Structure prediction request, 709 residues.
Amino acid sequence: MPDATFLDSTELVLNMGPQHPSTHGVLRVILELDGEKVLGADCVIGYLHRGVEKVAENRTYAQVNPYLDRLDYVAAVSNSLGYCLAVEKLLNVEAPPRAQAIRVILTELNRIASHLVWLGTHALDIGAITPVFYCFREREETLNIFEKYCGARLTTHAFRVGGLQYDLYDGFEQEVKAFCDMFLPKVDEYEELLTGNRIWVNRLKEVGILNGEDCKRYGVTGPVLRAAGVHWDLRKAQPYSGYEKYDFVIPIGQNGDTYDRYMVRMEEMRQAVRIIRQAVEGIPEGPIMAKGCKIIKPPVGEAYVSIEAPKGELGYYIVSDGSTTPYRVRVRPPSFINLQALDRMVRGGLIADVVAVIGTLDIVLGEVDR
Amino acid sequence: MTAQQLLRKIFLVDLFQGLRITFRYQPTKYICTEQYPQQRPKIAERYRGAPRLNTNPETGETLCNCCNLCALACPEGLIVVTSQRNEQTKRKELVSYTYDTSRCMFCGLCQDACASNAIELTQDFELATYTRAGQIWDRPVLEDGPRPTVYRC
Amino acid sequence: MADEKAPPPKPPAKPPAVMAATPWEGELPAALKERFGDQIRETSAYLGQPFVFAKSESIVDLLEYLKYEADFDYLVDITAVDWPKRAQRFDLIYILYSFARNERVRIKTQISEGSHPQSVVRVHATANWLEREIFDMFGIEFAGHPDLRRILMPEDWDGHPFRKDYGIVQQDAGWVQSNLKIESGQ
Prediction:
């Protein structure tokens, strides 16, 4: 980034500081502008770095679990799922079918909750103030279900290595079904508010285009990759936790612009409801915890397991040295790697598009910085 | 552009469609403001809030058998349990139990680990204190349990 | 009397446990061994996840071969592990995925402190921030990286936090005092 002095009349270096309502957390973007056109964007991150990977080296496997909720704090259940699957892979156990079904239901509810936050805050950044209230109203219902199930709304600590700690509470199935019935018409409502709206379309179409080849080059995953036309979802490509039993469709976009990402995520919410309905129909009876997971001491080795988190491919690479504490826990954060593509996506656009692109990448700084 | 599209554009049909949804939520029955602190929200039973040391309801003795499992399970290591051995019954008796709520992340591992249902996380979420020292709870505070302030309406 | 004072004889030291890896058979490891010869030390799999142990000089060529000839076009992650007691202290791990084959493979290599492995940015653009993070956290400098500076810690921080000799509550006291104007962060 060249330094701009006050005598330089064409290029301006603008600091979109860590404290900004639209950067979704403490993200600092240093923009190089020519008038309103963006010539380059450099992200400065690390304001929320808490050293989770280092902390994990000093805790036992079960004690690491609550720290990982704080990574992607908007959708805490997925982080827990990825970690539990990784440690279960190291231990070579599999969670029992009842635990898997309940895990799928909670993870999909969590996906809906995450996309609702995305939709509300993205619309708010663009200027549409209404959807954020409606989205958080629906999110309240999912958070109530989480609270009744595991005791916390946001930092759920829902899963344990080997299965689940809590069995379902009375009325879980009815509440989840009622939520699904209530929620689908609400998605149509959001679409009615936004999809055909000319302001929305003009703000989002042709903005922040990232085509399939660039997505693969930058390692971008999740809805951003699917909006670019690449048919890839880890739940279909490498299914985990029983996802192969459920019938759902992966929404694919065409142009890879912000509008397509919006449509992909709206459809993902509908597909999540479809998965929840199938899962809640037939929750198998049985134990909720696998055998042999009381003291977690995996043999020496390493494993990499990744899941399709709402933001992208969330992976855990765990190295075990045979003791009760992991030797290295590496979190492969989807938001960190998606954020790399920000520079590519905003070049040549206008400064207002930077806000739209940050919103559409759906980053959570807890995950970017860990 | 067809005539219908042109008319939809001039008469702002898409914008009015959105406004129709917003105005549908105007009636007062949709207002759901909770008058906190006079009305407290309904909290789930499994909510992981303030900790409490349970006592036997009949005898009033503590249920804690000083196994120290909660202190070992805590990721932050903020529970300190001291005990002494009772020579007659050959069991450990609780001397002091310190819980530091300033570092607690309310993960619930202590209540999962407790074998005798002594430490339990209650539904109390009002944990603010005026001093840092007030955040470290010792045995009498823990056994009293949550005391939410009652406000006059 | 003397017997009570003498310590009991120590049992013979067990050899340190190693990962129970199984050899990885298939056409891809055979093709890799044929192409790279002795640059590849082993091709094994653990728990069904194949990995290739290569020498650090050949990493860029190996990743290029895997990207263009074997369709591993997506770099999932680069990470490092610190084994301070070993001569070659750091393990560098590259995780690759192939969309066409729907397979993942790990490339592992060992480097010693102070060595400068070649950056793979020109093969996979994702590596930019990932290598910056490894430089920031472990102190491994990548040769040929366009923009190697700290990413998560402040620019002028001293020390590399994820190394095993960096304490869990250790902080750069100089930085804390000059920037935050407090005695210590603890």
Remarks:
- The two ends of chain B are 62 Å apart (CA to CA).
